[in-house]
């Protein structure tokens, strides 16, 4: 009697767990496939903390130098203190530096060249879950899912790559389904999609 009751409870629990897993998988599969094309042709790189900016002041070599963008998003250069740089493109930052230098020299002409690209946090690509090397990547124009997976080293042995969710912050955190498993393990190029700044890839663990 006890064994029969225990076995019945165990069977019921197994069915509950299977039902919950099925519901989760159904919820994941209900997301629409990610659009193949996503890159914007008018994308402009924005400066972020950790970037290096090379400031060139025409005819004033003593004011020209490379400086890092601090964690607070600002830069400090000769005659320029605590100037916000984060979220600006190089041309906009050059104009701001010209405005700051205009108090000391006549008609400054400034060019800003960005090196060591990191970008603002809001535009970085994040990969979490069952990737070989989960990490944050700087976004690059026309970056694809395959490019991202190469950098993170592919999938772990325990991943369910085809249940991967793409969270797109540029579209109000809309969620899409991407077939990372087919792309990586089967070489199915039809599963490759373009990324957008701020995308998050969530790779779940396989339950079977």
Written overview of the protein:
The structure is a single chain. The protein has 208 residues and is of the alpha+beta class. The protein has two domains: 31-38 and 121-203, Outer membrane lipoprotein wza fold like; 52-115, wza like domain (wza like fold, 2-Layer Sandwich), CATH 3.30.1950.10. 25% of the residues lie in helices and 23% in strands. It is built from four helices and ten strands. It has helices at residues 2-29, 90-101, 145-151, 180-185, and strands spanning 52-57, 65-68, 74-77, 80-84, 110-115, 125-129, 135-137, 164-168, 174-178, 199-203. It has a five-stranded mixed beta sheet with strand order 7-6-10-8-9, with no helix packed on it. The chain has a three-stranded antiparallel beta sheet with strand order 2-1-5. The chain has a two-stranded antiparallel sheet with strand order 3-4. The longest helix is centred in the first third of the chain and has 28 residues, at 2-29. The radius of gyration is 24 Å and the shape is elongated. The model is unreliable at 1-7 and 15-26 (pLDDT under 50).
């Amino acid at each position: 009697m006890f064994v029969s009751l225990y076995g019945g409870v165990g069977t019921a629990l197994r069915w509950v767990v299977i039902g919950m897993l099925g519901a989760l998988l159904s919820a994941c599969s209900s997301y629409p496939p990610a659009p193949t094309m996503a890159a914007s042709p008018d994308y402009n790189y924005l400066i972020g903390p950790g970037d290096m900016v090379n400031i060139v002041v025409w005819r004033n070599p003593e004011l020209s130098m490379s400086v890092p963008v601090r964690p607070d998003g600002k830069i400090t250069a000769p005659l320029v203190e605590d100037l916000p740089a984060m979220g600006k493109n190089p041309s906009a930052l050059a104009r701001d530096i010209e405005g700051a230098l205009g108090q000391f020299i006549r008609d400054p002409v400034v060019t800003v060249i960005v090196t060591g690209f990191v970008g603002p946090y809001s535009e970085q690509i994040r990969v979490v879950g069952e990737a070989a090397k989960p990490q944050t990547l700087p976004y690059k124009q026309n970056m694809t899912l395959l490019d991202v997976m190469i950098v993170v080293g592919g999938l772990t042995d325990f991943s369910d790559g085809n249940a991967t969710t793409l969270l797109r912050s540029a579209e109000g955190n809309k969620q899409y389904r991407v077939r990372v498993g087919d792309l990586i393990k089967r070489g199915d190029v039809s599963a490759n999609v373009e990324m957008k700044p701020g995308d998050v890839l969530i790779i779940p663990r396989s339950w079977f």
